[in-house]
Each structure stands twice: as C-alpha cells, then as structure tokens.
Amino acid sequence: MEHGGIGQLELEGVIGFSGGMKNSLLLHPNDSHIIYPLGATVVIRNVHDNKDQFFLQGHTDRVTCIAMTKDGKYLASGQITHMGYLAPVMLWDISDLGASPPKLVHTLRLHKVQIQALAFSCAGTYLATIGGPDDNNLVVWRCEDGMAICGSPAAHDSCLTVQWFNSSEEHLATGGLGGLGGGSLRVWDFDAVNRKVRPTNVALGQNKRSFNCVAIADDDSTMYCGSTSGDVFKIDLASKNFLQLGPRKKLQQGVTSICINPKTGEVLVGSGGEEIAVLQTDNLQPIYFTKVLGGVSSLALDSHGEFFFCGTEQSNMYLVQYDQLVAELKSTCHSDEIADVCFPRGYSELFVTCSGNDIRVWHARTMSELLRIQVPNLVCNCVCLSPNGTEIVSGWSDGRVRTFGPQSGKLLYVINDAHKIVGVGNASGGETPKNGVTAVTCTNDCKRLLTGGADGQVRVWAVAKETQVMIASMKEHKGPVYQIAVKGDDSECVSASADGSCITWALAGMQSFTRCGALFAANFFKSVVYHPDESQLLTCGTDRKLTYWDVTDMAAIRIVDGSLSAECNTLDICADGRFFVSGGGDKTVKLWHYDEGSQYYEGQGHSGAIIKAVITPDEQRLVTVGGEGGIFIWKVPEEFQGQGAGAAA
Q: What is the Cα–Cα distance from 517 to 553, expressed in whole angstroms?
C-alpha cells in the first residue's frame, strides 16, 4: 500500500503532562481550559471534565515552550529538533474553543535546534521568540502574516526567558545566564518601522546572577526577576537600575516561575525546591508559603487573582487557592518513561501502568488514577494482571517479583531472587537498560507464573497465596528476556530475547520445560505474540522488521518493514487476528491488516519511543505508552472495530 493511502488514527484522550518544561501550563482567559504539552502534542483540556480535550498536532519532536495572547486568540508552541536543523514555532488560532477546533495559522522557521522561550506582545500583534543554546537569537514576528520583522543575538551567554511590557508594544525584557560580559538582564526597544531591536543592559550593581524568569508589573514601572540562586530582583524599568532583592531566606534550587497578581500587585513565585510563596512588593518577604510535590515549573493565575494552577516537574497539576495558598492535587501522571501497560482480561474500563518506582491503576473512561503502589529506590520493569483479575504481578530491578491486590494495593507475596541482577547493557532506542526481572506473565489457569530475567533465564513458578515454588528454570537464552507469550491451553510458551532468538518451551506432557523449537535472526527480539489460531508467531525488534513465523518448523513466512528509521519495541494482536498494532523508536503507532501484511493507519503524538502498545479487550481503542511518560488513547477505526471480549462492557 502506498504511504499516501495510510490514514491517521484519531487521538481520543491523553493522560500526562510534560511538567519538566518551564511555563508549560497555561490557563485560557475563559478560566475553563488549561493548555499544556505532552511530548510532541499540545493538549487543551476543560478544567471541569478530563475527557473534554483538544489536541494540537504537527510538531515532530518534543514541545519545549508555549505562550498565549492575553485575549486567548493565538497560541504559539516551539519544539526541539535534531542538531543542524531548524526548529519550528507553530502559531495556532484558538479563539473559538468549544465551538470550532483550533487551526494552524503559521509555521515560523528561523531558529536552529531548539526554541527556548516565547512571548506575545500586549495586544497580540507581535511574537518574540528566543532560540536555544545553539542559536541564542531573539526574533520578533508579526502574527498576522507570520513575517519575521527583525532579530538580534539575545545575550552574551544563553538567554532563557522573554517578556513584553503590559501597555507598550515597543518594549520587551529578556533574562538569562550571567556570563562574563554581564547583560544577564536586558530591556529592548523594538522599532517596527525601521525593523530594529536594540538592547540596554540592566545595571545590577555588584550582583552577578542568572535569571530563569521575569514578570513585569501592570503599569510597566517595575520588573521582578527570579534567579537561579533562589532570590528575586526588583528592577526599576525607567532607569533600568536594580532596586532591591529578597527574600532574606532564599528559595531552594532557584526561582523557576514568577507572576504578578493583578488585583493585589503581590509577586507569586515557585521554586525548583517544591516551594510556592507570595512575596510583598515593598520588601520581597513572604506573606504565604506552601510546598507541593515536585519542583514548580509553571504558575497560571485566573483572571480574578483568586486561584491559580501550578504545574510541577513530577507531572502533577495543582489548583491552589491564592489566599493562604491551599493546594489541591487536580491531576497526576508518570513523569518517567513508562515501561509497561496491561488490561484485565475481557474488561476495558481499567488498565495498569508501571514507570520508575510506581505502579498505577487508571479508570479508562474518566482518565483518572484509582490506585498507586510505590516501592522506593527500585524500578518496575514489567507488570501483568492475572486472568482472574485478583492479582497485579510485577517484575522489579532488584530481581524480585512482587504481587499486589488490584483494589487495595496491598502486597500479597514476594518472590525473592526470582532472577539475578546482572551488569546492564543491551538496551536501544533511548530506553533505560532493564535489570532483574524483565518479563512476567501468568498462565490462563492462574496456577503458574512465568518470568524472564536480564540473566537470560525463563522460570516457571507454582503460585498460591501461601507458597510460591520454582518448578523449572530454562537456561538457553544468552541475553535479557523481553517478553513471554503463553498458548491458550497452557501447553507451551514462547520467549523473546535480546540474544537474537525466540524459543518455544513445552509446559506440559513428557517433555515439560524443554525446548520445542527456536528461531534465530540478527536481531534483539523485543516482542513476540501468538496469532489467535496459534499456528503462527509474530515478532519485532531492533532489525525494524515485523516477521511472521510458522510455529511447527520455526521458518519465516513473511517479513514486513515495521519502520524505516528505528527499532520496533511492541506488538499486540486482536482476538480474531484480523489486525495488529506495532510501535517503536520512530514514535509512531501503526495499525496493520494481518493477512495482507499492509499498514492501514498510523498515529503520531509521542515525543519518545513507544515502549508498549495494547489493544483494549473490546477492540474499540489502542493504548500506547512511551519514553516521555505519556499515556495516549487512540480510537480503532470503525472498519477494524470488532466484538472483542468485553465489547458489551
């Protein structure tokens, strides 16, 4: 099938927030929509309804900064790209939220590699953009026609932030690293007629600082600048002189976000040390102070100055009452790479993910977290649900298997030393190398557990509530085992390994726990699944190929290019074998017709490698998770929607 014939998968919902990015959470002037990036997608979400989401898609890599006009008409988003390439800024018309979908107005290309910061002028006529460390230029664009009016090197060192004055479109300010030549704070005069922009350095006296963020008072008389040292500088904009600094007790890990409450004139700041404070304007001492989970990356005040949204580096979003700073957690997600995702058998309303040191249970329809299980200082590599739905079984980097109750989150049992911890290697595509237990699955009768490890062993355990006994250990793989799939009658299983082999093992009969067959390729096998009729296997891995194999003689029947540019990490096939999905390092989820071996649809939105993709039991949706910590929920096109198990649910 020609690439032109490949359809686009419809993105139905996302869970996640790229909270590590500065000023990444905006509140629309209508106070009912929040705007934030997740990977290469910008999400516009209704504050009152998690499911009411719009998606701005078009970026090819991680979105690094966003900005919005004061009237909420335009939104700008900038991204990072590969070394040597131009990084685009996309200008969107979002004036009709709720009535009509946002429209892409202009794509602006001048900066190299990365966009560092963006700001709109007070009337929304102009957009100022700052390039990243490899570019370091300030460019002013006209929003109406997307024309670049003028530009200039932004700073002696790196420039980190830009802000326009509130009542003049002829002045703006930038802040950045305090290099040897000074000029870490600059006020610029912008002359649109002569297409010039001229800087004046702010005199800081004996102080040397680097600045993360700036906020300008409503009357343009003063400017407040948050430094990487944890203090706030007050600057007189008429004379461009330093007036004072505070607070006396510095904020930990630098001031990362700053804004001014228009009603009170007070300065609201957030720090990398998980602190939020309201400072008086005359002496810059705190009036209120509170702490949140994760370094504060963004603060977004409502139009009345009574509430604000706070985004943190741990991908948490808080709604905070301005008076007394009472914080309420509104949404949360993984902030690290998500290693695995699974659904209960025949039930599509819930799913489980694991990332870093935690396992989370989600409600699929409301996209809300129901349960969180944490094991400090360890990494959860894989997770599965027992077919009867009574256990969450997980494999960890310390070589142990831990099993939890899916409703209580209570630890039911631990298998110590399930697999050896080894020197880690053999990871590709930006994935974190896995150690300890790397694959886990249950037999269909729920009586046995199969585990694979970084040590290359496949082990079979007889499990009951009181006892967990190892029945067999199969030692033929020479590399980490990435996935184990079991036949429907529990007579056989197959393991995929980074050593370039997939091995089928007998689990019953005279030849129990011995090798039935093996297939080899110059490949790190990342995923293997049985076709539902169990006559064929489907594999993928670092050779970028999707390969069909005959189970009886382990011969390759068909080889399809799964990706032209990156390894394939994950496969899942529907209950009747009509279609399957794949995902990998090219950040694209692909839907294939099994018998034809041709790709019909693809979906783009991730900015990291897709590590796992699953089809929901009712076959109405796909769920993908990836390196940026986002959970993406895609709609299965109607022509492929089947009556999978649980479709009625």
A: 7
How many CB atoms are located within 10 Å of the residue 533 CB?
10
Instruction: Determine if residue 603 is left, alpha or beta; phi over 0 gives left, psi from -120 to 50 gives alpha, anything else beta.
Output: beta
Each residue's pLDDT tens digit, 200-240: 999 888 888 899 999 999 999 999 999 999 999 999 999 99
Whether the upstream peptide bond of residue 88 has omega within 30° of 0, thus cis, is no
Token pair, residue 421, equals: 């911890």
Q: Which long-range contacts (CB under 8 A, 24 or more apart) does 4-7 make?
A: 6/599, 6/600, 6/601, 6/602, 7/600, 7/601, 7/602, 7/637
Pair 23, 36: CB distance under 8 Å: no
How far apart CA 622 and CA 636 sit, in angstroms, is: 7
Beta carbons of 482 and 501 less than 8 angstroms apart? no
Strand order in 380-385's β-sheet? 380-385, 392-396, 401-404, 411-415
Q: Which residues contact 453 (CB under 8 A, 6 or more apart)?
A: 399, 418, 419, 420, 436, 437, 438, 439, 459, 480, 481
Distance CA 160, CA 210 (A): 9
pTM of the model: 0.88
Sheet with 515-520, side-by-side order of all strands: 481-486, 492-497, 501-506, 515-520
Q: Are strands 137-142 and 126-131 parallel, antiparallel or unpaired?
A: antiparallel
- 615 burial type by CB count under 10 A (0-12 exposed, 13-18 middle, 19+ buried): buried
Count the Cβ atoms, other than its own, within 10 Å of residue 530: 21
Q: Check: CB of residue 42 under 8 Å from CB of residue 35.
A: yes
DSSP helix/strand/coil, 622:
strand
- Tokens representing 89? 């800024």
Cα torsion at 243, 247, 253, 256 (round to 10°)? -60
Domains in the chain with CATH codes? 338-640 (2.130.10.10)
Location of structure tokens 């680097």: 210
C-alpha dihedral (197, 202, 207, 211), degrees to nearest 10:
-50
What is the pairing mode between strands 7-8 and 598-604? Answer: parallel
Per-residue model confidence as pLDDT tens digits over 447-505: 999 999 999 999 999 998 788 999 999 999 999 999 999 999 999 999 999 999 999 99
What SS3 state is found at 56?
A: strand
Question: CA neighbours within 13 Å on the CB side: how many for 113?
Answer: 10
Residue 101 CA to residue 54 CA, distance in Å, equals: 7
Tokens read off for 181: 């030549």
Q: Rounded to an integer, what distance in angstroms lies between the CA atom of residue 208 and that of residue 304?
A: 36
